Amino acid sequence: MIDVINLEKHFGAKNVLDGISTKINKGDIVCIIGPSGSGKSTFLRCLNCMEDPTGGQIIFNGVDIADFSVDINIHRRKMGMVFQHFNLFNNKTVIENIMLAPVFVQCQELRQAKAKNAINTVLNIFKSADKKKVMIPITTNKTQIKATAKENAMNLLKRIGLEEKADVYPSTLSGGQKQRVAIVRSLAMNPDVILFDEPTSALDPEMVGEVLDLMKSLADEGLTMIIVTHEMGFAKEVANRILFIDEGKIMEEASPEEFFANPKSDRAREFLSKVL
Question: Which pTM value belongs to this model?
Answer without folding.
Answer: 0.91
